[in-house]
Amino acid sequence: MTPSNRLRLQRFLASITWTDFVRYWYILSLMVIVATLPFSKLLLSIGQFMMAGGWIVERFDEQKWWRRMRDESTGRAILVGVPLALSLMLSGIGRGFRSFFNNRAALVFTSVMLLHLVGLLWTTDFNYAFKDLRTKFPLLLLPLFLSTSGAFGKKAFYRFLFLFVLAVLVRSVFNTWMISIHHFIDIRDVAHNVNHIIFSLMLSLSIYVLVFFLLKRDLFLWWHKAIMLLVLGWLFAYLIISQSFTGLSVTLITLLIMVPVLILKTRNRGLKVILAAGILVITGAGFLFIHSIVTDYYQVNPVDLTKLDKTTSRGNPYINSTFATETENGNFLWIYVQWDELRSSWNQRSRIPFDSLNLKSGPIAYTVLRYLTSKGWRKDADAVERLTPEEISAIEKGIANHIFLKEFGVRGRIYEFLWGFDTYRETGNPTGSTLMQRLEFWKASIGIIKDHWLTGVGTGDMNLAFSAQYEKMHTKLEPGQRWRSHNQFLSIFIGFGIVGFIWFLCAILYPPVMLHRLDDYFFLVFLIISLVSMLTGDTIESQTGVTFFALFYALFLFARKEKDAIVEHDPKFL
Predict the structure, then answer these.
(1) How high is the pLDDT of residue 570?
(2) I need a labelling partner for 544 at 20 to 30 A (CA). Which of 63, 199, 499, 526 fits?
(3) What are phi and psi of 92, to 5 degrees?
(4) Dihedral class, residue 268 (left if φ above 0, else alpha if ψ from -120 to 50, else beta)
(5) Average pLDDT of the chain to the nearest whole number
(6) What are the tens digits of pLDDT across the range 213-229?
């Protein structure tokens, strides 16, 4: 460092007041939370501890403490200093909470935490209840800190959003690298310590943040927008690469809701026509795309079942079950099967025995059968020997169709859903199909609600209730797959009954109505993303999920001086 730079730094540090330091600490702690949200639960906790410490220090009357210490002798200062500091600290915390209690909107939102505390009155499993309360603590802490600290102007607020997008971008690049070297069993496990569904919500929010800035005509230079456009394209590509059906669905549904809102808000008739036409084109194209995939899936390749070969090239007899109708990519699954050859040839090529389980805990024999059928091959030794090492590895990981390797996510995920639907329809067993398992979760949830519709089962007894309900239903779900609702609204209803369910909805929806923020672009997009995700996931049942929800709800609603209108009626927007 040059002497002149060192001098500037010394002057800057000398000019910082206690108030400046506390404010910088608050900003730093919020940056830690925003930047580590896609990465680390530990760093999220550290960021919140930092914010808590800064919040307490901000309200500590250090001038009163120093004045008192100057008036005391050295001996008495030592005796009086610590108790006085504790007293001033408690007094500052009290002032902070009084300010919070005067913020009715923030108080209503954090009553979701109060709802969980009330649910302790009729719970029996307190170990799980206290674990759940620790998980939900950000619902109290983040609104408390953000609503009682100084609000941010637009420039500072936008910087936080760019930091968040940058963090999501870095994580998506890292995940893509992990996908490319196949360091995962299920592609949905690539996010590791961050739930893949919650990360997909971060991706969706990042996409809409970039869309907003791209539409702001004079806010950025052209090359800034060029970079943002590249990042936007990459985030869309990553949703496909990672086969994030949830992310794509949430992003599309949010668009289908936001476009009509834009049509109602804008005064530009030409723009109204363009948006209406765009939504019709997107909807129509999506329908035709899905229809073509479904048609291809159910198309059966013609085979003369009366003229099937009887033996393999090695002279062993085939098993041809001509009455079985199950297919894979239009090919009949149960013809041209030679089990002994499959077993012998597979055991020579794979480290996982043929009569064992794949890495997804499914029968590897059935996975081999489906994979070979998906390629239109016979199920014998010749076919197994034709498999590449990459395909052997894929089968070991539970991948049962070559489409899941050759094509990016959408077609493969729809094929996976259709296969699961057909299997569930024929056998009643939803295990192995994400959507069919969810239907079983929801069926169990409704059963619990019928028995506990008024008060619910309490904060801690949800696992016990589901375990009992699955036994009552005689479900065919594997024990390791008997999970909870995968629907946040059903989870709240199960835990706290109809009163708690209404309470939860009011706590989320009333604050933006009270503050007139439903016409704020960022809050409305975030709210739509969150509510849509709650239909198929337990969004606030994990540390990352509840932090994501509480952080952006409080940041968008309580920590900004100005809102960003969905449509600003000036020539610089849209």
Answers:
(1) 47
(2) 499
(3) -65, -40
(4) beta
(5) 87
(6) 998 767 778 888 899 99
Q: Is the pLDDT of residue 189 over 60?
A: yes
Taking the C-alpha atoms of residue 69 and residue 185, their distance in angstroms, rounded to an integer, is 63
Determine the 3-state secondary structure of 503 from DSSP: helix
Is 334 a domain residue? yes
Q: What is the pLDDT of residues 443-460, one digit of tens each?
A: 999 999 999 999 999 999
Asked whether residue 549 is assigned to any structural domain, the reply reads no
User: Which distant-in-sequence residues (6+ apart) come within 8 Å of 62 by Cβ?
Assistant: 18
Alpha-carbon distance of 401 to 398, in angstroms, equals 9
CA separation for the pair 410, 242 (Å, rounded): 10
Crossing angle of helices 18-36 and 154-180, rounded to 10°: 30
Which candidate, 173, 209, 215, places its Cα nearest to that of 190?
Answer: 173
Residue 357: inside a domain = yes
Count of the separate structural domains present in the chain: 1
- 358: domain range? 327-406
- What is the residue-wise DSSP string for 204-222? HHHHHHHHHHHHBTTTS-H
573 phi and psi, to 5 degrees?
-135, 130
Percent of the chain with pLDDT over 90: 54
The string of pLDDT tens digits covering residues 539-566 is: 999 999 999 999 999 999 999 988 898 8
Please give the Cα distance from 219 to 568 (Å, whole number).
13
Q: What is the dihedral of CA 538, 541, 542, 546, to 10 degrees?
A: 100
Q: Judge whether 344 lies within some domain.
A: yes
pLDDT at 288 over 80: yes
